[in-house]
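SEQUENCE AND FOLD
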Amino acid sequence: MQPHQLNPLIEPQFDAVTEYILNHLGSNVPLVESIGHYIVESGGKRLRPLLVLLAANACGYSGQQHIPLAAVIEFIHTATLLHDDVVDNSELRRGNATANAKWGNAPSVLVGDFLYSRSFQIMVEIGEMAIMQVISNATTVIAEGEVLQLLNQRNPDTTEESYMNVILGKTAMLFEAATECGAILANANPQQREALRLYGRHLGIAFQLVDDVMDYLSSSEEMGKNVGDDLAEGKATLPLIHAMREGSDSERALVREAIRKGGLDDLAPVLDIVHRTGAIEYTKAQAQAQIDHALAALTELPQNSFRDTLTSIARMAVERTS
């Protein structure tokens, strides 16, 4: 079951967001439309815009502005995907060829810029300064997180703290912006706004940690990307950081060298070390701790079906395999 199918009250709103997104990809430049439609329609759960809808509804919102706001969040997310795939030289996402693999790096970057610009056009139309402040801050932090990840690439000395800062920036900030902006739109009280901000932050961190785990567990059919992609790119994600911390001297040396050189030559022994050192279990436990924080934050919200759906999504986040 897709997350938006958990609550029948949200499905029509979710469909309205999809329609809004497709109606706002228009451009006088055909290539912009082609790439925009390709990446938006290439799958994905659209979890971030769903969080906007659920947060607003959980706080009693009854207007229509949450539809364009959810589209803003999805446009920003899509722009980051286009840019990420260029930076990482990725060829596969969600089981499909990436836009840069089909059209090249330059068009992908420029269409990502277009989607950022379109999102800010829509925000101006919404006309809520507090929302613009949250999202403009989030996009800045996301960019910083991407740069920090780039600096950490092929660096086996990346610490757990440094890596958590990366995923807070590059992943969790957009989750946080989605839920907080939904609360702002609904004129939620300060406690509810803060609760939803924290829920989004902790959910986003957990979501990325589970992604880190799946890179060492899942098949390309499940993940929509290749097993070991993080290792191939020289990313010292949490499973590798833990494996280096807990492994023997020889195991630590092997993982460090694999991170330094990137590629998949050492994938088999690295996988063995990751599993033998309990790195998978450790990372899953960290993800579960984040979900526990997210669920605790929800207790500030009124009890309703939308809060229940937020609870279900948090629990699903640590159980997913794709």
About this structure: The chain has one domain: 10-317. Residues 160-185 form the longest helix (26 residues). The radius of gyration is 19 Å.
